[in-house]
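Chapter review: from sequence to fold.
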Amino acid sequence: MELSINTWQIRKVESVVLAVLLLLSGMADAQTVTILHVFRNYGAVESPVGPPVQGRDGKLYAYTYESSWGSIFRQKTTGEGGVVYVFGSADGGGGSPFSPPLLPSFDMWYGTTGNTLGSKGGVLYQITPQGAYSILHSFLDADGGVPVGSPIEADNGICGTTAGGRDVGPTVYCYNRAGLSFSVMHQFGRSELAFSTGALVETRGDVLFGVGTGSDLCGAAFKMTTSGTSVHVYNFDCSLSVGSVTSSLVEGNDGNFYGTSTGGVDSNYNGAVFKMTHGGAVTVLHRFSSGSNDGWSPRGGLTLGTDGNLYGTTVWGGASQCGTIFKISADGTYSKLYDFSIAEQAPSGMVQHTDGKFYGYLQFGGKNGYGNSGALYSMALGLAPFVAFVHGRGHAGETVEILGQGFRGATSVSFNGVAAASFRVVSDTFLTVVIPHGASTGPVVVAVPGGTLTSKKNFSVTQ
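The token string follows.
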């Protein structure tokens, strides 16, 4: 029997095949944004701000500053949660928090608050998971003014930056937990750095990086050793129209830093994404323009995904001019992933949880309209679960902490291919491991029932 297929049938088959290929291609790039929890106009948690941080319990930790004096709260990735601490007038004049807490240990967390009362410039506080709060240091103008960004855990203690006081430049400070002492490591002159913003980033070679506004009122960054003996300030070329850098840098897989700015000298620009080398050379990867469908006015900085791309949010722009979610590659390829609606307003950055999804907060609105005070949302891109570090550097013989999920029944932990002789599964989302001798800088891999979990960043093994 002879089979006869005419031209029309061939073209029909080709069309069906093409449609399937396009569908599969769209599925590969598709994302699902889900509102997980809506905050109502009452209680201690209203208008949450991100990006959140992930705790050892797998929960998300974030803050508010709109409700009363603000609060610190935690939530499961399914939305359930509660308040850790509500700030008030009895807190020594610390005011509201403007960044999430640092969670360096099981029993003690650290954070900063802003300036609200008298001559006080905010405080460095410590708080237990049960909400026991105490002040470690009250900032005065001589300390460099108001602390900005979350503190970080560095070799010499809990360290951070200040914005700059009325008559003094910004500072880098550290609090020694063992000696219970506060010190200013370095104070910038106004001619070096006008203002500092965002948290510090510690990188290889015991080096700290920070950002801010230069003496020419354009973007700037600084680099200094953790001992404070070597300091370099990089003032960005104003012709780049990068503008003030208000969010912390993130280190990409290529070793360069990436960041966002709020605007440029040219009023047509409303923020940018830029790349910076360790030597301070800056390249603009993408410019945001007012009213753009791509979004404009980025907020909350960038987060590195396990696929090597960088992800962020804009407050304005998009289809409804209510903000967007975007991704950008190291070479500057920009994609808008999601448009927030009129009922979903003021996104403020995201974090990639070790379950593979991204999580962020809306400061206003939420599902079902204007009458809500923000929301928690997730974005699923189909990226696999992975592991992360509480502190991403250490030496052989030191115990380090690993975050993830599915740790029950883990059979091995390795550092760049060298298996650890000793590790302890504390919970399904947290384990501790002793860095093995012979290990070198590279990925950490945890073997769990059903497969392996690999870190998205290299762990730095120091001598």
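Two observations follow directly from the output. The two ends are 77 Å apart (CA to CA). The CA atoms of residues 401 and 432 lie 5 Å apart.
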